Amino acid sequence: MARADARQPAAKDKAYAFVKRQVLRGEYPGGELISEGEVSEALGMSRTPVREAFLRLEVEGLLRLYPQRGALVVPVSSEEVQAVLEARSLLERFAVEKVVEGSATARQALLGTLREHLERQRSLAAEDETEAFLEEDRLFHAALLGAAGNVLLNRFYGSLRERQVRMTAVSVLTDEGRRETILAEHAEIAEAVGAGDLERARTAVLTHLASTRTALGFG
Cα separation of 53 and 56, whole Å? Predict the structure, then answer.
C-alpha cells in the first residue's frame, strides 16, 4: 500500500506534464474537449492522477472543466495575445537598443548565436519537427534578451515562456507558411543587430511581433 502511494505523485506529475505539453504545443488545440479517459489511456494509468492534473491546469487557466463531459482547452484570447506582445515589444526593443549601443565584439558574438539558432530552425522546419522548432524559436528570442544583460528583465521574459510557446504553436499550426515567415523575420532581426543598425533592428522586431498577431487572427 505504501509503495502504491509513493508512486501516485509521480503519476500526477506525469499526467500534468503530458497534458500541459500537449496544450502548449498545440496538439490539444484551443476549443477542443479532452477527456480523462483519453489521457489515461494514452499514458497507461488510472483516471485519478489525470483528474488531479486537470484540476491543476484549470487553476493555471489552460483548461476549463465540465463535469461528466471532460476538459475544454481554453483558446488563446485576444487579451492574452495583446498583453504578451506588448510585453515582448517593450523587452525586445530594449534588448536591441542595449546590444546595438554596446560593443561591436558583443554584437558579433550575439549575431553568431542568433545565426546558430536560425540554422537549427531551418533544419527543423525542413524536417517538420514542430516541437523542436518551437523551442529553437524561444531560444532565439531568449538569446537576444540575455545579451542585454539585465537579470531582472531576463527573468520576467522567462516567465512569458509558456504563453510565448503556445502562441507560436497556434500560429504555426494555423498558417502553413508561418515557419518560413518566422525564419525570414528572425534572419532580418539577426542581421540588423549584427550590423549595428538600431532603426532597422527596432523595425525588424516590431514587424515580427505584428506578423505574429496577424497569424493568430488578431491583426
Answer: 5
